[in-house]
């Protein structure tokens, strides 16, 4: 299908609008704000409906505001309902084509005739439940109150408290979200409904660790999108909400200091300032906030290397042999700065807004590695210094115009992400003696290698150094407009028709360059060039003056505190000095030789997506609503990259590089149907059918190609790679009771077509011509392909309750628990090889496939938190369980890589003093849970990362 926009959808809308307009009587508009009568803020998710027509209603937004159009003129009785609060009925007089304002304050309800205790944690839970129940889509909510209660250090960790959501960690900190087992690149991240630009170097994922939770007024996770939502959200959409100014002027100051026990480090800090007010007779609202923070994310990393041995012909099991042991001590400082502003201006029938967001995370990392490889290089000492900077800029203008029968809203936004990595320098030093005990089994468990090593530091010399610099920028622009027409055809039959268009462009540039020297070990002109560039006394190896000694990169007395998997201290043989390594790079950078192979990693992207949709919601009485619709998206994309062929990237032997470009255009029609049925006042049943898609990774679809004529290998993107189409089926059942909470169970199934996966194949039997490499017959091609079908399915349970109806002291308990069981089937490709020696030595490869689970899919996810409030004291303990998951599939199934299951526990306490001041203590990972990866079986551990327990203590002043 290759039509740019479905013009017939606009025609249908016009017919519906005109028909409904002729049937509608004189109407007006009702607006207002719903607040908590206890003075704790507004109530999002409140249901507001006409008593005379219970099918006609609206829901208050994240700020507690509501707008009801198409209200019949005259005296009307309006019902305001919020789960856990007393229902309130108010009479209002509606004037034709005019705005009537009615603000309402609701009070907490009693349960079983007993007065309940209204606690901060119970109120936050009630807000999330109401928003979830009144969402038109199947969704999960984290309220602003709960975000502030939990000791989450960034937005990714806050999202991961929800059912079916797990996270990928980096440096012991949550980084990217996995929704229902779909990798981060398959999920959409938005702020106030505006999509964030991707900030990964190669795919479409977003690093959420750069957003501080203090910026947010709530988090919404939509798991079954409506037609008016972005279709590129296979797992789901995470929407981050920024604060809007309430009627009362507020100022908040928050500060904390912290420590990391793994590094014996005290010096973490965070400072937050927020201010909001309304001016010009409350017509203009302003919220400005900022935070600065620094955290130590250093850790101890233990690595075990394994290789493939022989395969038993009877069982088919391949033996695994130990190859190396790696001890890595990592020091890392992360600095995060966030600022946002949110402006709104209302004139009655029109509201305008602007929000801006600036977020920056910088990382300074230095890793020292002692590596023991008895069958390889012997003993090597490595130092890696990394400076990185990740920045997000976003600005958006919005408008909402309310007429008596229509609501028109629009948005125009610009955003940019920039990932800058100017310093990624590695220094490699070789111990020249290869000293290991003669009795060592060199294929045994790598844990044996350290005790058998006998290093001789006097023989260690500089072998190589390299720096890889990269910069990735992505600019997004977006404009969208929606028109909604409410109707009230018959008593008990009302709803709306909605249509709209959206246009988004993406401009991405990735620049990669490298410099290095691989031949210091040859001495001669290689080390002489380094000596000439060095300002100082360069120490040579005593046994060979041509070589550069290890002594240039260590300081006497330097040491490393390192902890193994069992918590035992391990002595490092060599602790390379960060300042000396950095000084070496600063003096050598101009004489390091250009790595020409990095040119193939540069690429450019220009993508545009034009979308149109049509949907209608039919409220049939108070019990049933049906929402059919469709969405159409048309993509027009172009990609720029290069084709590289070099015999050696440093020496400068024969090779070439040339630019290339490709283009793709396609359209996708996506039908939807959503049904919500409430057979009882306490029961909510939802069925959803939705179609979504995913576009390939930038690195997968760009025409970059690297040809190695020595190894007869080609690494290439696939410009013909198709986008992924997914049909989503959802069922959700929720039982709820005011003051008691909510229990929900859901099941889902995703039918996936054309998932894109890596594939290796030998260019034989016409494949060279078919794949576009006719002159490279017999080469091994590493590329990417579509596989026809995959599926993801599972079920989720969620319990949110409090015991506020119980007598003291039990009435302060608040409980949140959820469990998800996820399944999937997809395909990975792998090679088998056969060696021939007649008539000449050669190797033939055959491409095969096997069924596996989705990478990054956690099969079992448990979230548990128990909170307790007593007067001005609050405490919470929370745990997250993630089952063992596969992260990478190898050419041999025995070398698939997994992350071991774990429980991670956090705790927080808060004490309020007076009306404005609070003190708090947060402890993260107090059980010192380690991040462990392995291959095939748990006995073949490949990596153990220890980041320890962290704690913060601080104060907050709110006026």
Automatic annotation (TrEMBL):
Q: What is its main location?
A: membrane
**In what residue span(s) does the TonB-dependent receptor-like beta-barrel domain sit?**
419-925
Where does this protein reside within or beyond the cell? Cell outer membrane
Any idea where the TonB-dependent receptor plug domain is?
136-237
- One Pfam match, given by its short name, reads Plug
Nucleus found in the keyword field: no
Keyword list (alphabetical) reads: Cell outer membrane, Membrane, Receptor, Signal, TonB box, Transmembrane, Transmembrane beta strand, Transport
The UniProt similarity line reads: Belongs to the TonB-dependent receptor family.
Quote the NCBIfam families the UniProt record gives: TonB-Xanth-Caul (TIGR01782)
Task: Write down what this protein is called.
Answer: TonB-dependent receptor
